[in-house]
Write a structure and sequence with these properties.
single chain; alpha/beta; Spore Coat Polysaccharide Biosynthesis Protein SpsA, Chain A; 9-stranded mixed β-sheet; two-stranded antiparallel ribbon; about 30% helix; globular
Length: about 260
């Protein structure tokens, strides 16, 4: 299979199946509002503005709420993750939906990241295409990396793998370059490699991040772009964090409005 053409069609898969147990609410996590809209809507908008023509949303907990919220958007479709078996398993639920477009590129993102910027996705997509990579990720360097997967690089400074926090050793835990879960893949190869992931890890889950290591083992290219501002990857796991992100996004929108 040849590298992606410079203008290959792009689709998107957005992970939106989680419950968000620390949010003190029975709502799906992605349905909590930020700047007056469910957080998943901001991610859908960013994908669309970056050029995605099909947007597949993976739903699970109280799926009907997410479906109803996005039902008026004709380019959005849904697949269901019945069991929470990890991010790799979640992405794999879109296998059938995207089976007819193996030569497309596909953005894979989390629905609980409303601070995502369209321009970041465009940088990610451009690097993916220009480098001829099978798999591309954006990274960020933050002061406190607790909770994030760490970017492990080899002796040449090139990407080696992503290690999740629960699987990291002491040296890896000290790494401040982290994975904010902004990915781009060649669609056909993504699903081929998801079939080869394992749940032999601390969580007993299938990780989409393992696809990057498998890609390198196969001798194919992984591209990395440090394109995500630290502010943009703030986690939303509690009501306090939700309020913090809401304030940041409202301030950003206010600045954008002021410059028009």
């Amino acid at each position: 299979m040849e590298p992606s053409p410079r203008h290959a069609p792009v689709d998107a898969v957005i992970l939106a199946a989680g419950k968000g147990t620390r949010m003190q609410s029975d709502l799906p996590k992605v349905m909590h509002e930020v700047a007056g809209r469910p957080m998943v809507h901001w991610v859908v908008d960013a994908c669309r503005d970056a050029g995605a023509s099909r947007i597949v949303v993976v739903v699970g907990h109280r799926a009907e709420l997410v479906r109803d919220s996005l039902s008026d958007q004709s380019d959005v479709e849904f697949v269901t993750q019945e069991e929470q078996l990890g991010t790799g398993h979640a992405v794999d639920q879109a296998r059938e939906a995207l089976a007819g477009s193996p030569d497309h590129d596909v953005l894979v993102l989390c629905g609980d990241g409303p601070l995502i910027r369209t321009e970041t996705l465009r940088i990610l997509l451009d690097r993916h295409r220009e480098s001829g990579a099978d798999a591309t990720l954006a990274t960020a360097v933050i002061e406190d990396p607790a909770g994030y997967g760490r970017i492990v690089r080899d002796e040449n400074g090139d990407f080696a793998r992503i290690v999740e926090q629960k699987d990291a050793d002491e040296t890896e835990l000290a790494i401040r370059e982290v994975n904010p879960s902004y990915y781009c893949f060649r669609t056909g190869r993504l699903f081929d490699r998801l079939s080869r992931t394992s749940n032999d890890n601390a969580n007993g889950e299938y990780y989409v991040t393992d696809v990057f290591g498998i890609t390198r083992t196969d001798g194919d290219r992984v591209a990395v772009v440090d394109a995500v501002p630290a502010e943009d990857i703030l986690s939303i796991n509690t009501p306090d964090q939700l309020a913090e992100v809401d304030e940041i996004l409202r301030a950003r929108l206010g600045r954008m409005e002021a410059t028009r």
